[in-house]
């Protein structure tokens, strides 16, 4: 039996491999290769070595987008996780209508980013109307608009993960802590938080990478206005590739750097939080 | 070890086979179809619902029309052209756009379509080759609603001595009239003199391309630079004139300055069509957006043009901004048969009786083709007024100097600077600096 599975391994793995190759591997390899070429259509180009990488830094578009993205990600990771955890704590206490609340908080996650962006653009412009300005009048409106949007969209999802974590804490453990005289703060710090470390790992990983990769919300909410000051990395790459003729290769090079950066940050973060996980 | 080798082999063979498949589909492209990537969203309907069915009925060739969303033509073309069934007919906006698509433009010298072009020098080429043929001459300026203007000139308390909008021939008069009209807004029943200065993303072209043309042209004129030349840097000598008109637009608009960031060109045109404003800066292509608006309150005979006055000495002698940014190209990477069908379609559209009716009544183009007789010129009020201005004695049209702008990026940066100036986050001196500096860097990058 074991042997025949090994024999037909290739055949069974084929459909999956085909999909993986077409949707991921081939574009990925092509993308890296193209970043060393000057091209207008992806099928013909001339090799120019590292020129594209040099041209990324001819102006500070990329670095300012990177800085904006970092600021946004830090703020949104903190607010989303705090918000989601607080909601999860509230909704695991057996309040009446818990399920209804959970569903309602989760629902924004089902709406696509572009639609959300438009909805929030209208809401925020409405809120700013008495001041006689719009969301693109000042980059700080765009920044906080994005933070609010991401919170609204992601808190519900992260909440579900935290709820699962909290519900998994063994009852004996809590009871034992209570008998030992643990107060609310001690309970939270020494029992709950260590026990839900896996959930924290997942949630912070998700929010971190989501923050870095944010694209549709950014496009629909501000499209980088005013003057690219709310342009995040992914949008900057898109605009470089499609918006500037002759800069396709530069966009590609930015995308390669972006991939490396996101992978590096996510892996570091994963290692850091993993080390804090405990076996309950 | 063996396993990894097997997987590697699999992946490589997959990669190879995908190349084979890609090559295969190219051969098997749909036979009787012409794919046209349309540039103008405002007339996309006409192509889809009227022209395509009529063309198919008369020739049996299907016309596939795809329209790029406003402000995204270059990127749509870029991704469409790389597909296995790429556009056969596409548009380019002038020498700079053409340079970008040179790798896949066919030589049109022997086409029927080129033969009907009246002035062959209008076509764009590369050496001996003819690569792009213009299909519409357009003009823009300030469109005004003469009914509101007459109402203003009939006011007993008006502050100016002139009696009709025809007498506005320079910036000083325009400014006096506009500012006095703003004072009498309620008596005139309007919300503002100018329609919203649209600054939403993708809606800044009326300013960063069209309005800036006026100061750019006068600068080129003074420096004796021929239209279409490569200009490594500008001084923006007429920057103060641009500021004149820009401030006038912002201060006498129907929308508060801070809210302009959410306004689109469509909004502005609708305001004009509904009679809420007296003036809007746009071109004859906007006719459909005025006449087609539901509840349109402007009579055809009241829609008129006046040139954009900015306070340049001697501007009385200059008319509308007239030129073309609309050239058609045929993709050289498609089969010869498809290229021939594309030629057949274009010739049909601009030379056959059926096609010409569409061009005149629905597309409303002022065409540069010899197949159109005088009585076949478009009948919409704006096109008629463009023709009137073109033939007006003692007035020279301002050509489209903006085709010399080094890149789209320059327009974007300049547009963003204008938007920031409008909300008070940049001074005019900074806007000027952006225009001059970005021109220099963009020219270096693109040449």
Write the CATH fold name of the largest domain in chain B.
D-Maltodextrin-Binding Protein, domain 2
Relative strand content of chain A = under 5%
- Which second-level CATH architecture of the largest domain in chain B applies? 3-Layer(aba) Sandwich
Instruction: Quickly count the domains of chain B.
Output: 2
The helix/strand class of chain B is alpha/beta
The biggest sheet of chain A, with number of strands, parallel, antiparallel or mixed sense and barrel status, is: 2 strands, antiparallel
Secondary-structure-derived class of chain A: mainly alpha
Short description:
The complex is a heterodimer of chains A (280) and B (447). Chain A is mainly α and 280 residues long.
What does this structure look like?
- In chain A, a hairpin with a 5-residue loop joins β1 and β2 (45-47).
- With 280 residues, chain A is mainly α.
- Chain A has two domains: 2-51, no CATH class; 58-274, Orthogonal Bundle (MetI-like fold), CATH 1.10.3720.10.
- In chain A, α3 packs parallel to α6 and α11 runs antiparallel to α12 (248-274).
- Chain A is globular and about 75 Å long.
- Chain A has twelve helices and two strands, in the order αββααααααααααα.
- Chain A has helices at residues 2-34, 51-55, 61-90, 98-106, 113-128, 139-168, 171-179, 184-195, 197-213, 216-221, 233-243, 248-274, and strands at 37-39, 45-47.
- The model of chain B is unreliable at 17-30 (pLDDT under 50).
- In chain B, 45% of the residues lie in helices and 13% in strands.
- In chain B, strands 6, 7, 8, 9, 10 and 12 form a six-stranded mixed β-sheet that branches. A four-stranded antiparallel β-sheet of chain B has the order 3-11-5-4.
- Chain B has 18 helices and twelve strands.
- Classes of the chains: A mainly alpha (280), B alpha/beta (447).
- Chain A binds chain B through residues 9-10, 13-14, 17-18, 21-22, 25-26, 29, 40-44, 58-59, 121, 125, 129, 131-138, 222-228, 242-246, 248, and chain B through 3, 6-7, 10-11, 14-15, 18, 72, 74-75, 78-79, 81-82, 97, 100-101, 103-104, 199-202, 256-262, 407-409, 412-413, 416-417, 419-420, 423, 425, 441, 445-446.
């Amino acid at each position: 039996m074991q042997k025949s599975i090994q024999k037909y391994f290739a055949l069974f793995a084929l459909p999956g491999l085909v999909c993986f190759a077409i949707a991921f591997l081939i574009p990925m390899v092509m993308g890296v290769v193209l970043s060393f070429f000057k091209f207008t259509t992806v099928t013909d180009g001339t090799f120019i070595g590292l020129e594209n990488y040099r041209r990324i830094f001819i102006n500070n578009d990329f670095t300012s987008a990177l800085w904006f993205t970092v600021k946004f990600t830090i703020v949104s990771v903190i607010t989303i996780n705090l918000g989601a955890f607080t909601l999860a704590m509230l909704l695991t206490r057996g309040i009446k209508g818990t399920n209804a609340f959970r569903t309602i908080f989760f629902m924004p996650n089902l709406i696509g980013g572009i639609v959300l962006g438009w909805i929030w653009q209208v809401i925020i412009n409405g809120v700013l109307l008495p001041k006689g300005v719009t969301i693109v009048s000042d980059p700080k409106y765009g920044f906080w608009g994005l933070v609010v949007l991401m919170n609204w969209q992601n808190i519900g999802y992260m909440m579900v993960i935290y709820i699962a974590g909290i519900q998994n804490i063994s009852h004996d453990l809590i009871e034992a802590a209570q008998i030992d005289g643990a107060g609310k703060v001690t309970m939270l710090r020494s029992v709950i938080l260590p026990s839900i470390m896996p959930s924290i790992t997942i949630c912070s990983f998700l929010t971190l990478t989501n923050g870095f990769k944010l694209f549709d919300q950014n496009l629909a909410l501000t499209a980088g206005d005013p003057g690219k000051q709310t342009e995040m990395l992914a949008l900057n790459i898109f605009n470089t590739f499609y918006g500037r003729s002759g800069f396709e290769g530069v966009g590609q090079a930015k995308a390669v750097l972006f991939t490396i950066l996101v992978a590096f940050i996510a892996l570091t973060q994963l290692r850091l939080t993993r080390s804090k996980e405990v076996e309950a | 070890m063996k396993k990894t080798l097997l997987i590697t082999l699999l992946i490589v063979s997959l990669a190879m086979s995908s190349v084979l498949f890609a090559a295969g589909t190219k051969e098997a492209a749909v036979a009787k179809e012409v794919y046209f990537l349309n540039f103008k969203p405002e007339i996309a309907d006409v192509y889809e619902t009227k022209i395509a069915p009529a063309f198919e009925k008369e020739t049996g060739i299907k016309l596939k029309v795809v329209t790029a969303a406003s402000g995204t033509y270059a990127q749509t073309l870029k991704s469409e052209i790389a597909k296995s069934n790429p556009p056969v007919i596409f548009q380019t906006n002038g020498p700079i756009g053409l340079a970008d698509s040179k790798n896949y433009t066919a030589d049109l010298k022997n086409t029927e379509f080129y033969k009907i072009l009246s002035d062959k020098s209008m076509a764009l080429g590369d050496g001996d080759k003819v690569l792009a043929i213009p299909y519409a001459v357009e003009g823009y300026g300030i469109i005004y609603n003469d009914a509101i203007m007459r109402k203003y000139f009939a006011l007993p308390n008006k502050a100016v001595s002139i009696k009709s909008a025809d007498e506005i021939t320079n910036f000083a008069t325009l400014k006096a009239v506009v500012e006095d009209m703003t004072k009498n807004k309620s008596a005139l029943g309007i919300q503002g003199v100018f329609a919203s200065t649209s600054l939403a993303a993708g809606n800044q072209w009326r300013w960063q391309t069209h309005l800036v043309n006026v100061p750019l042209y006068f600068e080129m004129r003074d420096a004796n630079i021929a239209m279409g030349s490569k200009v490594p840097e500008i001084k923006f000598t007429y920057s103060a004139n641009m500021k004149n008109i820009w401030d006038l637009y912002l201060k006498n608009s129907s929308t508060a300055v801070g809210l302009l960031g959410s306004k689109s060109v469509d909004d502005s045109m609708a305001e004009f069509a509904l009679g809420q404003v007296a003036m809007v800066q746009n071109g004859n292509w906007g006719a459909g957006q005025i006449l087609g608006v539901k509840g349109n309150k402007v009579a055809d005979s009241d829609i008129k043009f006046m040139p954009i006055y900015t306070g340049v000495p001697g501007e009385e002698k200059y008319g509308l901004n007239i030129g073309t940014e609309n050239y058609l190209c045929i993709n050289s990477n498609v089969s010869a048969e498809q290229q021939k069908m594309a030629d057949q379609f274009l010739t049909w559209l601009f030379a056959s009786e059926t096609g010409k009716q569409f061009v005149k009544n629905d597309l409303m183009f002022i065409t540069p083709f010899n197949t159109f007789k005088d009585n076949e010129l478009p009948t919409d009020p704006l096109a008629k007024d463009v023709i009137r201005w073109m033939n007006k004695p003692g007035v020279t049209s301002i050509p489209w100097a903006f085709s010399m702008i080094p890149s789209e990026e320059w327009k974007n940066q300049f547009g963003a600077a204008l938007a920031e100036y409008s909300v008070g986050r940049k001074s005019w001196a900074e806007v000027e600096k952006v225009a001059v500096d970005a021109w220099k860097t963009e020219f270096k990058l693109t040449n």
